[in-house]
Amino acid sequence: MKLKKFKEIALDGVVRQNPTFRLVLGTCPTLAVTGMGAVSCLGMGAAVIFVLVFSNLIISLLRNIIPDKVRIPCFIIIIATFVTIISMFMEAFLQELYASLGMFIDLIVVNCIILGRAESFASHNPVLDSVCDGLFMGIGFTLSLTLMGIVREVLGKGALFGAQLWNFKIEFFAKPAGAFLTYALFIAIFNVCYNAVERKLKHQAAHKAALAEHQSEAAVAATEAKEA
Amino acid sequence: MDVFAIIIAALFADNFVLSQFLGICPFLGVSKKISSAAGMGIAVTAVMVITCAVCYPIYTFLLAPMGLQYLNILVFILLIASLVQILEMVLKRFSPGLYSAMGIYLPLVTTNCAILGVAKIVTNVAASAADAGFVFSDVFFGQLVSVNMAMGYGEAVLSGLFYGLGFTLAIVLLAGLRIKTDKLHVAKALRGFPMTMLAACFMAMAFYVFTLM
Q: In chain B, which residues have their Cβ closer than 8 Å to the Cβ of A184?
């Protein structure tokens, strides 16, 4: 795979098509898990990365074998298998995390990010691309989840990654209503920043193009003058 | 656990959308109009009741005795997918009017975490149902069934029904709010999803009151 394509996929997953803030997919775990603290967010993110990478890998390998008509049930079975694996793994080795995340680990099966990537990317892209896509989509999800988790933990519990910082806390942010408010503000802020950066990049590109055109025109004029 | 407590908890205090964050995707996605919100709500309720009615006995009498609890996700998701398919076919055949009203929402319900969530919650209850001492199953299914089935089947179906109704309540209320909020002139960044979520934020505050009772 070329480096440029790799960069494209990475940028798409983490920024341009960030599953949480741009596509607004997988909202249920986002709202629920961010209230459990930043550590749970990282754990949830790791589980989603695992499932995304492996389901994308298998679906991409089988993309020419799975009949188009029954593709959704096939995807779901593949995804459910990996969710069962990670769920059992966490239950055995990370009991504390598993207990706090509760059934949201099992509910990764019906997380729209994973089925969405299977349907829109892995089912018609080569294996390596699909694995990268799964990895970076998962990283994008984890980053945004952890960011929101940190904000809600600091404001709502006065703690960071489980360590108590101070006694001041606004309990509203730890409650369901706070989840909706935080998410709404995060989407708004992310979109403002994204649009500003994009506008600037477009401006720069246009400027560069104009400059290049000017130079080539000057070069043409120079050669014409020489010939004359 | 008495019936009234289940109903109040399922409708308000443990509301699926606003306090447990299950089924957020349809909640935000299909709440533009009150009619479509109601259609989605009814479809979810119907599927939830059927899911509870089927998943509970399959878990208690098939998976648990054979020690196959770890297969529950796979079994439930397959069951739900096929149940939705069957429900769609039955509706198409016997009630075309109802099918045209809620048929388009049924396939969406399959990959809705609220349904898998209700199956998980209900079967978790099943593990501790022995001491529940719930008598509503007598009313629904007669003495015979309640002897054969573990106590708590009635409880399972009932909570499925009221979790579904709680979802319907929330989504219809949000659709009503969105009719107002979509007309507001707000900052460009807040248009769309953020504004809907702010409306949901205020609803969550209102529903939170019930947990304090």
A: 190, 193-195, 197-198, 201
